[in-house]
């Protein structure tokens, strides 16, 4: 039995999104809070992944007209950046209206451009606030608000270098739907042979331009070596690549709603270095090759990948090194060394906090409940 007791029915507002890296931890926390008797509502951006995921999952939610500040140079991005102050002020006002309407007892931010504004509104309205930070190098919202919110739950101790505030190591919450399946069962579910090696190419929730271009040039290597590919290329890219590639040994998908199956079928996962992906792959105990997104905010994906690489828990390859079959040569090397493959997977699993969701929920309870 919990050492905390609910005063009355509680309401939690979870703010965050933009990408799966900020969205899925929020959903994992929300699902756990619901099991603990909370009414949970979400707030995100109409431009983020949450705009479709919340509806699919029947989550009660609100969407703000806010985009992050664009770091790459283009005419469209210049216009978006010029509109940012107006969108910020409008979203701030709407956030206050939403918060006054639902009267949350606590507001939880999980990062991304959709979390900062509701958190800022809540701080100024004297509502209890907590941030969960996924990355080794914290995001802009966390860095700016860490010493203003009541608590910051961090995924790795690396974050301590960059933050001031009430910091608690909790790890990364893993979504309830993530389960480790028998490889044979997973392969059959995907229509793949159980007798061939499987490489899972995971370019993130929106696919990866660099990954797609690279593997478009090298996919024949995998066929020549009798390997199978699972390739998440992004919803907007799926039609293009299905016209280019048609082979029974290559499973092309825009996006996996059930990520457990491709993880479980894979012998190696090639992934960007988002914190969610790294922790999920580690949880399933799969060896991984990490290729950080060089334009990630604060270069946080490099910091994530480096943390695992220096602990012999992943192979890190920088995007500017993607030439001369560097990935394929490393895969051959690993497939010829089963001990190294197993060591990478076990080292990664040992780095993550296994009960992260419960730890975060307990930190929330400490803010919101009174002790018996």
Write the layout of secondary structure elements.
Layout: E1 4-5, E2 10-15, H1 20-35, E3 38-45, H2 50-56, E4 61-64, H3 75-102, E5 106-109, H4 113-124, E6 128-133, H5 140-145, E7 151-154, E8 167-169, H6 183-190, E9 198-202, H7 209-224, E10 228-232, H8 238-244, E11 250-253, H9 260-265, E12 268-271, H10 275-284, E13 288-290, H11 300-310, E14 315-316, H12 326-335, H13 338-351, H14 356-368, E15 370-371
Helix pairs in contact: 1-14, 3-4, 10-13
> Approximately how much beta-strand content do the residues carry?
15-25%
Query: What are the low-pLDDT stretches, counting only 5+ consecutive residues below 50?
Result: none
The portion of residues assigned to helices is 40-55%
Query: Would you report the number of β strands?
Result: 15
Rg over C-alpha atoms, rounded to the nearest angstrom: 21 Å
Quickly name the level 1 CATH class of the largest domain.
Alpha Beta
**CATH architectural type of the largest domain:** 3-Layer(aba) Sandwich
Into how many domains do the coordinates divide? Answer: 2
> What are the secondary-structure elements, in order, as H or E?
EEHEHEHEHEHEEHEHEHEHEHEHEHHHE
Spatial sequence of strands, sheet with the most strands: 4-3-2-5-6-7-8
The rounded distance between the terminal residues' Cα atoms is 11 Å
Largest sheet: 7 strands, parallel
Number of helices: 14
């Amino acid at each position: 039995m919990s050492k905390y007791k609910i005063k009355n029915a509680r309401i939690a507002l979870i703010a965050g999104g933009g990408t799966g890296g900020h969205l899925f931890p929020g959903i994992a926390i929300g699902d756990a809070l619901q099991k603990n008797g909370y009414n949970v509502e979400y707030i995100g951006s109409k431009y983020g992944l949450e705009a479709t995921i919340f509806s699919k999952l029947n989550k009660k939610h609100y969407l703000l007209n806010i985009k992050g500040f664009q770091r790459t140079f283009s005419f469209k991005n210049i216009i978006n950046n010029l509109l940012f102050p107006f969108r910020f002020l409008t979203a701030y006002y709407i956030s206050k209206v939403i918060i006054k309407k639902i009267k949350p007892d606590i507001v939880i931010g999980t990062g991304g451009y959709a979390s900062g504004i509701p958190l800022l509104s809540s701080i100024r309205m004297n509502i209890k606030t907590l941030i969960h930070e996924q990355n080794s190098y914290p995001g802009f919202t966390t860095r700016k608000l860490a010493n203003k919110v009541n608590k910051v739950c961090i995924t790795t101790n690396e974050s301590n270098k960059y933050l001031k505030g009430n910091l608690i190591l909790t790890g990364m919450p893993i979504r309830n739907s993530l389960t480790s399946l028998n490889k044979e069962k997973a392969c059959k579910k995907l229509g793949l042979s159980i007798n061939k090696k499987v490489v899972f190419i995971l370019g993130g929730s929106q696919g990866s331009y660099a990954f797609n271009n690279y593997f478009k040039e090298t996919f024949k290597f995998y066929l020549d070596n009798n390997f199978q590919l699972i390739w998440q290329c992004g919803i907007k890219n799926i039609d293009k690549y299905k016209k280019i590639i048609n082979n029974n040994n290559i499973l092309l998908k825009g996006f996996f709603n059930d990520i457990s199956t491709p993880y479980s079928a894979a012998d190696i996962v090639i992934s960007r270095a988002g914190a969610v992906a790294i922790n999920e792959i580690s949880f399933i105990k799969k060896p991984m090759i990490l290729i950080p997104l060089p334009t990630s905010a604060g270069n946080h994906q490099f910091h994530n990948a480096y943390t695992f690489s220096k602990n012999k828990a992943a192979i890190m390859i920088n995007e500017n090194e993607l030439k001369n079959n560097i990935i394929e040569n490393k895969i051959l090397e690993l497939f010829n060394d089963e001990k190294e493959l197993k060591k990478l997977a076990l080292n990664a699993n040992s780095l993550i906090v296994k009960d992260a969701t419960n730890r975060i929920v307990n930190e929330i309870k400490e803010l919101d409940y009174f002790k018996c």
